[in-house]
Write the structure tokens for this entry.
Amino acid sequence: MTRGEQVFDRRKFHLQEPDYTKPIFQVPDYYAQRMKQKITFLYGAARLDGIYPELERILKVYYAHKTPLMKEFEKNFRPENRFTEKDIILITYGDLIKTPNQKPLKTLSQLLETYLKGVINAIHILPFFPSSSDRGFAVMDFEEVDPNLGTWDDILELKKDFKLMFDGVFNHVSSKSRWFQEFLNQNPEYLNFFTVFSTKQQISPDHLRLIVRPRTTPILTEFCTLNGKRLVWTTFSQDQIDLNYHNPRVLLKMIEILLTYVRRGADIIRLDAVTYLWEELGTSCVHLEQTHMIIKLFRDILNAVAPHVALITETNVPHKDNIRYFGNGYDEAQMVYNFALPPLVLFSFQNENARKLTEWAATLKKPSDEATFFNFLDSHDGVGVMAVQGILTPEEIEMMALKVVEHGGFISYKANPDGSQSPYELNITWFSAINNEDADEPMEIQIKRYIASRAIALVMMGVPGIYLHGFLGSKNDADLVLEERQTRSINRKTLRKKELIQSLENPQTTTYHVTRWLVRLIEIRARQRAFHPNSLQKVLNVSEQVFALLRYTQDQTEMILTLTSVTSQPLELEVNLKNWGIHGEHHWRDLISKKTFHSSGNILHVKIEPYQVLWLKARNGKHAIVE
Amino acid sequence: MNFPIHEMDGGEVIVIDIPRRLTSEISGELKQLMKELIEQGKYKIVMNLEKTKYMDSSGLGAIVSKIAATRSKKGDIRLAAPQQTIIDLLELTHINQIVKVFSSVEEAVNSFKE
């Protein structure tokens, strides 16, 4: 919040029931035309008149829930300041922390209020809906909170202090969901909700080979229905039935759910596995134009009725395909998971060499003033490696994966079109990926290495995201992998509140040090406009052992040179600033150590300790940065 | 010593006999043995799982604790004669997709000649 900015209680943005006594929302012509174009692209002009009026009705119903407070808030909403240097998103399951006799969402709320209020400002609560498998991602009912976790009121209560990110698990639905059960009952309403075949032969081997998927299980799963056996499209698992977006009723239903989430408090909606939304035989069935068009339609809808709500796409695909989800920077996702970042940071620390990371980071372009990267290193899933195809060689990816195995992690594979399999993600906690528990080294060096790795995600252009286990510096839980028969469980251990608090308060634990370091860095970051997602960045190739990034405000009044050592060796660095377009004599103050440095004759001398992080802020205010 | 070793193929390949139970009580010893073998320049290793009926997560981790170190030196860790319970464990954790598995020690040793 900047000085003079009005504080809004975001819990009071929506009414529980629609108010039709107020004027009914009229879709502005600009948005109506955009939406109609997209519906026409997806379903053809002939079907537009059968689809658009229903969409308009859904928007009107949503709008009737908006309070005058929300409308007042929207008057001053500026999309270019949707995300700022203060934004940090904590990723967690609703039940990652438990305590007896209390619903987990309440426990989470209390802990966040005590330890992280004012540090992080947004929470991604992984799917909290009733679900039958995949830790919440096989949703049985999109509109209810899993009673084992809590209630909608508990979700709304979190909104008192934090922005909220909800999952839009829109690609598939649980086989136990009412929708799919109605399909099995052969209810005519639901017959076309799913992609159904009578025989396997309906997908030719050639078509089958083209389909790109992150799983090696069969794409079609057989179910017995009232009218006999049917095969349905299951990209992820037998329990996760893909929705059929060729049916406009499916799209309309999901739009209703999207807006239900907005009503229930979502500030950001994460489009899970959105790559696979639209299936078309004869194609790869990933990131098709129709899929992009649906996301763009969602964006138009939100812009029209709830412009402060952002979309984030989760697409573990090669980097060039990933950033296509920004669209033109103004018409698709406002945020994209920066999937290449985690494996490149990991690769840098494994090899004590940041060259590949530096080269890649130098290619990153700001998508627009309204869109930015989600700079995460860890999440509930593993470290995806698809994004670094073409950035790292297959041999480098394989060696990175093997080192993860040496650190107690696992590898998940995907099926390739040629029938072979290749690594899809690395299952390991970020702390165990960066540090080897078997190594005979002091905790202090492990923490320094870890914090250095995390600092890279904190300085890069975008919004940082930290998974709860990453925030705590948790180590692998391989026992849980065997217990739950799922390699991703290595990073999903449920913590007891009492024990967690003991760890947080005990200087003998890594959790104690990691959390304090992270809080400190985040607090420093939040005070620097140079770390605003729209501030510029310039990658400096000064040493293979250092990731060097200059962040500066668009008006060049603030400038921070960040240096992160990825090596266990001390370094002496001589940076010719002029070579990097930084003109002028500067006093530099490290925001972390508080030490000062002076550049003379455009040369900056810095001694860097192993895994040290320096955030050098130029002090004299007379900068000239030449592109 | 929980892990008898045998030099095969003129000392080129090392076979480590894994006991009936490979658990956290002894997995550290296996990791240490692997470390020492690598330090001695032994990069071709066969884990003889013939007798192994049970392995916990720690034991599993120990078996592959030097997989990158061996492969980076043109060697490998290969598994021989696992029983069904161990095969299930390898499949569950996808280790079977990382490490080559053979039905006998002899086959595993000979595979290094290919």
Summary: The longest strand of chain A covers residues 536-543. Chain A has a mean pLDDT of 95. Chain A is about 30% helix and 20% strand. The first helix of chain A runs from residue 29 to 43.
